[in-house]
Design a protein that fits this description.
mainly beta, 4 helices
Amino acid sequence: MLSRWDTRLEARTFEGRRRLGRLVCCAALISPAAAWVAAAQTPKAMVLPPPSGADWVSVNGDRGGTRYSALDQIRPGTLRQLRRAWVYHTGDAEPPNKSCIQSTPIAINGVLYGSTASPRVEVFAVDGATGKELWRFDPWIGFDTRRPVAAGGVNRGVAYWAGDGTPDGARIILATADGRLISLKAQTGRPDATFGTGGVVDMRQGLDIDITGMAYGCTAPPAIFENLAIVGYSNGEGPGAASPGDVRAFDVRTGREVWRFHTVPRPGEFGHDTWVGDGWKNRGGANPWSGFSVDEATGTVFAGTGSPPFDFYGGDRKGRNLFGNCVLALDARTGRRKWHFQTVRHDLWDYDNPCPPILCTVRKDGKLRPAVAQLTKTAFCFVLDRETGEPLFPVEERKVALSDVPGEESWPTQVFPLKPPPLAPLGFGPEDVTDRTPAARAHVMERLKSLQIGPIFTPTRVGQSTVRLPGFFGGAAWSGGAFDPVSGRLLVNSNNIPREHGLERAPAGSGFAYRNTGYGRFQDHEGYPAVKPPWGLLNSIDLNRGEFAWRSVLGEFPELTAAGVPRTGTENLGGAIVTRGGLVFIGATKDSRFRAFDARSGKQLWEDTLPAGGYATPATYQAGGRQYVVIAAGGGGKLLTPSADTYVAYALDDKPAAQ
């Protein structure tokens, strides 16, 4: 049987791995399952004790999504000793900017598990102290690569199940962009033959509608609760048909589906009356594509859902459209709805809830209240009681402008929290136009003569583009936030980048009424944002008071800084983490920097230049008694900077980085 380990020297390069893949694919003609085992074979199994407090057990740090670590070896007083400890190359970047790494590795007892750069991601395990590859698994060997993939093949990481406590019981769970759920033995990277069929469940099977040709897959890893892997999906956003956004839970031991929650309610289900007529039928979307957080004490799984398609026209889905754009609390064992809170009614702006709610504790009226904080593209932060969904700060239902698009019935009101304050301006007007240079301002002002502008929730028009602020990356984006339980502060990076968008009538016979006429950034004549800076911020929100503790500009354009322009910030994707050592670590910016900020004051204390943009959330963990911080530097993606294939780890050491 062909062993990847035996061909390790050749497989160090991307082309070598592809040559190896072709050999293994030949074996797959005889036995795909056997080829999978061969592709992940290692010379010796690792012994895996249970996770410890020094681990990073999920892509969001812990099951509750706080991205907080109690490690404090790296702190303001020791930052001067922070050096690169190792660099790991995945070998599968697709230049110039066709690939990205948005994965956050998980760390279990000094071993890191993550995913690679290519849209056809592979899974790896590396030694957390050295970056040495322990095993690697290619889920595409022996499988049809022509199946449609969701979200361009983006993968944000893998999940860990501790199993039954035996050395061979732990599992790494991968949810792929083409709709497969794969269980790998954490020791070896080999598929678990008792899970599904040869280690894989085809989640495209068993759906209520035919999704042939439709995208249906995962960007975020499953949530793990007890013996369940709880999965959310990415799908098409229209125009046209889209696959279902239902939440599904699978038994981690067998791959059997245990429960399913319909995010578009069926007749007789709660929320069905928010869909007028047959608007619910064969309706996709309303999907928690960004993943989940879990309250293990109460057995509750929390999600932020997206909009039902088409993102920008809802004439065929009239009504308030539950459970689109909701904070959703489900019984993790049964899938039963506990409560919901809708953040946008009848979404016409692609204002998904782009990240899972974050479990936090808020001091309110002298009492500690378990809560969740939902960050949104609309730049709002909704702080809700964890048990009931009741807002812990006042919210208002305000009238908004009605759509004049033929056939549309927009919702007359939207929800505005009074606290915390918004992360970005709520709309765009002449007063917001850039003043970077007189020429830049004049260019944008001339452009405005042909564009519609107005406050947030201004409806899109047919035949005229509208300026959107917040834009399609927020406010807050899938990057999400981090919660410091000691200070009660929520740390979140935000964007202040306007977009242009419009509608036009679709061609006859297309099966839908309207289609997009633009989705791009609104920029000045030199390609910088058309709005006044700062264009990117790192925010600290005191959740006890519902107020900003501090706000710091995040990122710069070096050419502008060199010309004497005050630091502007940049568009940013990839979140922050916070530690007991009093530091906030974040990459995210287009200038390819990795930074550390003082968690109390917001002052930048340290930075390093990465091989490419760090458009992923970092992780921190302990290995061999030392604290490490690691971030994927893959560039590319939607920020269109050069792609790379690197994970970079830092520790308190003056030794040169291992390559």
